[in-house]
Amino acid sequence: MIDRPVEYPAVDHEVAYLRTEEAPTLQPPGSEIGFRGWLWRNIFASMADYTSAPAAVMSLFMTAITLFTGYAIVWMAWTLLDFTVFSATFTAAEGLKRDACLPNPGACWPFIEAKWYQFMYGFYPPEDVWRVNVCFAVLAAGIGWLIFGPSHRGKVAAFMLFGYPVLAYVLLNGMPVEDNGDLGHIFSGVWFPAIVAAVLFAGWWLADAGRLGDVGSAFAPVLLMGVIVVAIFAVLPLVTMAIDLALGTEVVETNKWGGLTVTLVVAIAGIVVSLPMGMLLALGRRSSAPIIKWSSIIFIEVVRGIPLISVLFFASAMLPYFLEPGVDFNKLLRAMIGVMLFASAYMAEVIRGGLQAMPKGQYEGGMSLGLSYWQQMRLIIMPQALTTVIPGIVNTFIGLFKDTTLVLIISIFDLLGILMATLKDPEWATPTTAYTGYLTIALIYWIFCFGMSRYSVHMERKLDRSHH
Amino acid sequence: MQMTDTTPPNMTISDEKAIEISQMNKWYGSFHVLRDINLTVYRGERIVICGPSGSGKSTMIRCINALEEHQDGTIVVDGTRLTSDLKNIDKIRSEVGMCFQHFNLFPHLTILENCTLAPIWVRKVPKKEAVETAMHYLEKVKIPDQANKYPGQLSGGQQQRVAIARSLCMKPRVMLFDEPTSALDPEMIKEVLDTMIELAEEGMTMLCVTHEMGFARQVANRVIFMDRGQIVEQNEPEAFFNNPQSDRTKLFLSQILGH
Ligand SMILES: Nc1ncnc2c1ncn2[C@@H]1O[C@H](COP(=O)(O)OP(=O)(O)O)[C@@H](O)[C@H]1O
Ligand SMILES: [Mg+2]
């Protein structure tokens, strides 16, 4: 309390004021509304000030920039249109091939048409290609459902994460009963993973109920994931056997796979694995247990510090020296594992950024209600952390999608690899074949990446709870 | 706030111990933040804790549900002794409700989901039953019509009442409040205090860190004054406010009451 009286300086103007009539609500000025307003504000306003010399110079400068940019846009659009449409070759008479395209200076579309099958499927046998198509169709349906589906999204997402990879593997690769009808080898492939899964399940059951103490409960989710993975291995031969008995699918070796199929297989495997792995690594890096913390840090830093291309190269060129002769560790699988590890390390850092942004109060709110660590992570922390870093996650996915092209250095023919292989075909050698091809696959890559980008925007809007 | 002169029938204190803290000490690094804390809370007590900022009030009540760990002494909640055993900690946390200054609602869940989350996952209550309980408590705090909104769409006072309802859904035997009204605009303080008063009248055991002295006079059966990590003085509200003993208490009271 202040006891001493304070002398404030006197005010020499009128301070009392009382509004007597309501101020009217008016339309904004004309330059603010409609298309004209937009044009004025965004294009012409900066070129229209000639009231002083500096302002006039600036306006003239802006006019020059506008004219130049306008010219560049029109020129680029025209060039592209000319190449792809006006000067392009659209059809080739039977057997003409390059001769149909040679007279025209534009794109050679018959080349794309002739090689389209390879762009999509590589060297996959045409009689089995329905299997790839079914995979694509289920994938498209699943993603469509996740975006637009009215209900059961959680179940669909669970199927896409756990069921779909099995289905895709069975369909794409196949795993037939041998011709002599011997089912024994299939069951011999089942019992071992089945027993391991059962043991892990028992461990999880004990740990989850707290019978193995604190450390045990901390490992419960890891055990559960182990159960799921091993169970997939146990169930896989049975599923394939059933499908095979029903449909008679042949094995299609992975060296016959190619084109967009390989690109999608590698990218989706990377995406599906990197998200959960990245979450675990991000949590691990923030763990208070030194072993978990340091193994996460070492994994992340080592993997991030090496170029993907050198790992792929190492896997392809050096690994055979370390393996016994005759052991053939599937090349595509090696590439996929490389991509998965890389994506996981990057994803971990993106997700860690989201975890960092979570206020401490969210953990405390969960703790004070008695939720366990994993329940807090699953129900409170991760959903929010992932939402805040959607742009970063999708950025990583897009990077991963394009990085899959690196597999071509170990002679796996992904979309880009297939294109480069088909460009060597002398029957289609024209001056514009390469441009046409690169333009086409660039467009395919762009469609997928732009799709992911739009999906990210859609999810951000949908999950935004800040101002409803 | 008008004063109630008759104690409601439920506001009786049993001789059953709800919380017993004895010779508890806590350090942050080498900083001795809580010194020789001894406090026994009987079932049905309404205790208000006050004291200057930084005196350790939050730290003390956060030790009770193990949001902070203590290094020395014992804390027994509802007969369960707090040790580093996670099972005991989870049990105590599910018996002890807590409301925070900044509410700590989960912004990605609706009001209803905020209230049903812990009963479903911790108590394993069937969803339908959890929803019924949640609606019951949301009605009690007078916001059943907001059940399907998100926390961000509610005012601060409403959010704090949701936070209280969320804790009550776990049917806690003790409620802790850490400055539940300090982040609220003045016109919302009353609605939260009214909710807390109702809770007290129903016989809930409560520990409130608050500077709402009107609330303390009306509801508390005991007021505790903390300074520099110690319990300096405690008394019944009348005696505490009218006849404080220690100089530190007198100074503190003159600072918050005197204008
Ligand atoms: N996590 C922490 N690490 C170190 N010091 C802390 C931490 N939390 C609180 N303190 C210190 O402990 C003292 C007591 O804090 P607190 O219990 O929050 O006080 P109050 O709630 O009475 O204002 C303060 O001096 C504060 O700076
Ligand atoms: Mg405090």
UniProtKB/TrEMBL annotation, chain A:
<feature type="transmembrane region" description="Helical">
    <location>
        <begin position="305"/>
        <end position="323"/>
    </location>
</feature>
<keyword id="KW-0812">Transmembrane</keyword>
<feature type="transmembrane region" description="Helical">
    <location>
        <begin position="129"/>
        <end position="149"/>
    </location>
</feature>
<dbReference type="GO" id="GO:0022857">
    <property type="term" value="F:transmembrane transporter activity"/>
</dbReference>
<keyword id="KW-1133">Transmembrane helix</keyword>
<comment type="similarity">
    <text>Belongs to the binding-protein-dependent transport system permease family. HisMQ subfamily.</text>
</comment>
<dbReference type="InterPro" id="IPR043429">
    <property type="entry name" value="ArtM/GltK/GlnP/TcyL/YhdX-like"/>
</dbReference>
<dbReference type="GO" id="GO:0043190">
    <property type="term" value="C:ATP-binding cassette (ABC) transporter complex"/>
</dbReference>
<feature type="transmembrane region" description="Helical">
    <location>
        <begin position="55"/>
        <end position="78"/>
    </location>
</feature>
<feature type="domain" description="ABC transmembrane type-1">
    <location>
        <begin position="260"/>
        <end position="456"/>
    </location>
</feature>
<keyword id="KW-0813">Transport</keyword>
<feature type="transmembrane region" description="Helical">
    <location>
        <begin position="156"/>
        <end position="174"/>
    </location>
</feature>
<dbReference type="GO" id="GO:0006865">
    <property type="term" value="P:amino acid transport"/>
</dbReference>
<dbReference type="InterPro" id="IPR035906">
    <property type="entry name" value="MetI-like_sf"/>
</dbReference>
<dbReference type="Pfam" id="PF00528">
    <property type="entry name" value="BPD_transp_1"/>
</dbReference>
<feature type="transmembrane region" description="Helical">
    <location>
        <begin position="435"/>
        <end position="457"/>
    </location>
</feature>
<dbReference type="InterPro" id="IPR010065">
    <property type="entry name" value="AA_ABC_transptr_permease_3TM"/>
</dbReference>
<feature type="transmembrane region" description="Helical">
    <location>
        <begin position="263"/>
        <end position="284"/>
    </location>
</feature>
<feature type="transmembrane region" description="Helical">
    <location>
        <begin position="405"/>
        <end position="423"/>
    </location>
</feature>
<feature type="transmembrane region" description="Helical">
    <location>
        <begin position="186"/>
        <end position="207"/>
    </location>
</feature>
<dbReference type="InterPro" id="IPR000515">
    <property type="entry name" value="MetI-like"/>
</dbReference>
<protein>
    <submittedName>
        <fullName>Amino acid ABC transporter permease</fullName>
    </submittedName>
</protein>
<keyword id="KW-0472">Membrane</keyword>
<keyword id="KW-1003">Cell membrane</keyword>
<feature type="transmembrane region" description="Helical">
    <location>
        <begin position="219"/>
        <end position="243"/>
    </location>
</feature>
